[in-house]
Write a structure and sequence with these properties.
By secondary structure, the protein is an alpha/beta fold. It has 19 helices and 14 strands.
Length: about 450
């Protein structure tokens, strides 16, 4: 037993200021943010990821992806010496109080269930460094029942029963560090008091500010995350379903969302209609949830998520439909797609609705030009066939159609009168309801926004 643990077991909780030693395994968006956040709270963090180039960047205080505010926080904790990075565990991992698993659980080869192979490879590499006192804390989003499977797996390989806990993370890309340091709640799934004590200590600085701390059994904590993401996806598809009706009925979904959002039981968040949800979480999590529910024999209980996904995909396709209604055959029409990231303030293009829209235009024979303030390198790597332009002005030059696919401030703040001079045809489809329609109309653009009948909005002159 290490000296650190002797202290932990005997007197840790009498000392208010004791900080913990953690390994954070997997340094993607979740792991890197979590590692920096805990280092900022003063804990001693060792970040582990097998990707050599990622580790080299992190050691130099550089992030392998764009996340506002995380870059400067990384530099701060590297300089303070609270964090170190390695491609593999070393003997120092043995004295860690907590091993936090933050690896990805991507969609599996069947196209629905979550692939937990990275979870097991993280555990395999950890086994030689485990002892009775260490707590393994899962943060990755997993199918309910995974922690129990992991326990069986480890018990077969170890001579003792390991402490296992689950601690789902609700951070959003774009506001990841703030969401981690100032979360609206902390949820832990535990089945032993040692794990609970360590996790309470880990989060003490945050819970001291009044953040709710929910301690529950492990299956509940696993389910909390997928339930939360399913609810959010459902809320978005709900407003997008209303948008489909509104488009036919000549109603305005944006006004409608404002009107229903004042009802506190409904709330005004996640009611922005448009080309729908994407990213590395919501789409894959609802599919994995349906797959797991099917395995458990309760697939019917979450079958509505099939419709949530169908609505989401229809809204992506609606942009192309509108373009064809307006322009007819799109062959060789120049279409500027503004935005590639799945939402603003990230460079993440995983399952991005904007990319899906760009691909649909490309398949329809259009000459597609994509712009994004942060994600163009990722676009070039993943879709070399699609033309990219480094500025908004270059992207819209000679365009027959402009599509706003990600609601970056740069597009909201663009001057429609200036852009009007560059395009071949003043037609814009606002796929995110982000533009000031009257400004664009004043600059003699034809603007079509999803879920709205803009002809009914009086133009202010
Ligand atoms: C999500 C969850 O919000 C977060 O709690 C969880 O930890 C990880 O998954 P994230 O993937 O970063 O976070 O994105 P989020 O902000 O939820 O947006 C998801 C998608 O929904 C984006 O494509 C966004 O553009 C879209 N969206 C969001 C809408 O279409 N309308 C809305 O009203 C809100």
């Amino acid at each position: 037993m290490t000296p650190c643990r002797v202290l932990s077991q005997c007197s840790l909780f009498k000392l208010n200021l004791v900080k913990l030693k953690l390994t954070i395994i997997g340094l993607g968006y979740l792991g890197a943010t979590t590692a920096v956040a805990f280092a900022k709270l003063g804990h001693e963090v060792i970040g582990i990821d097998p990707d050599t180039s990622k580790i080299e960047l992190l050691k130099q205080g550089k992030l392998p992806f764009y996340e506002p505010g995380l870059d400067s926080a990384l530099v701060e904790v590297v300089e303070a010496g609270n964090i170190s990075f390695s491609t593999e565990h070393t003997s120092t991992s043995s004295s860690a109080d907590i091993h936090m698993i933050c690896v990805g659980t991507p969609q599996g080869p069947d196209g629905s269930s979550a692939d937990t192979k990275y979870l097991y490879s993280a555990l395999d590499s950890l086994i030689p460094f485990l002892d009775e006192d260490a707590v393994i804390v899962g943060k990755s989003t997993v199918p309910v029942g995974t922690a129990a499977q992991i326990r069986n797996y480890l018990e077969a390989k170890l001579s003792f029963t390991p402490h296992i806990a689950w601690n789902p993370e609700f951070l959003r890309e774009g506001t990841a560090l703030k969401d981690t340091l100032e979360p609206d709640r902390i949820v832990i799934g535990v089945d032993d008091s040692w794990s609970e004590k360590l996790l309470r200590l880990l989060y003490k600085d945050i819970t001291d500010t009044g953040v709710p701390f929910i301690s529950c059994d492990i299956p509940t904590s696993e389910l909390v995350k997928v339930a939360a993401n399913s609810f959010l996806a459902t809320k978005i598809s709900f407003i997008n379903a209303i948008a489909e009706v509104a488009e036919v009925a000549g109603a305005d979904t944006v006004k409608l969302a404002e009107a229903i959002g004042y009802d506190e039981r409904i709330g005004n968040k996640f009611l922005r209609n448009g080309i729908g949800f994407g990213g590395g979480c919501l789409p894959k999590d609802i599919r994995a949830f349906m797959a797991r529910a099917n395995e458990l024999g309760v697939g019917h209980s979450v079958a509505f998520l099939n419709e949530v996904e169908a609505i989401n995909l229809r809204r992506r396709a609606r942009v192309l439909e509108i373009a064809q209604e307006e322009l007819g055959d799109l062959s060789n029409r120049r279409v500027a797609i503004l935005g590639a990231a799945f939402k603003p303030e990230t460079d993440d293009i995983r399952d991005s609705p904007a990319i899906a829209v760009a691909e649909q235009f490309w398949m329809a024979g259009a000459h597609v030009v994509v712009h994004d303030p942060k994600a163009l390198n990722n676009v070039r790597r993943a879709f070399p066939q699609i033309e990219t332009q480094p500025t908004l002005e270059l992207a819209v030059s000679n365009a027959d159609l402009v599509v706003v696919a990600t609601e970056w401030n740069e597009y909201r703040e663009a001057k429609p009168a200036e852009l009007a001079k560059l395009v071949a045809n003043r037609l814009v489809i606002d796929g995110r309801n982000t533009l000031d329609a009257s400004l664009w109309q004043q600059a003699s653009w034809q603007i079509i926004a999803l879920g709205r009948n803009l002809e009914r909005i009086p133009v202010l002159v």
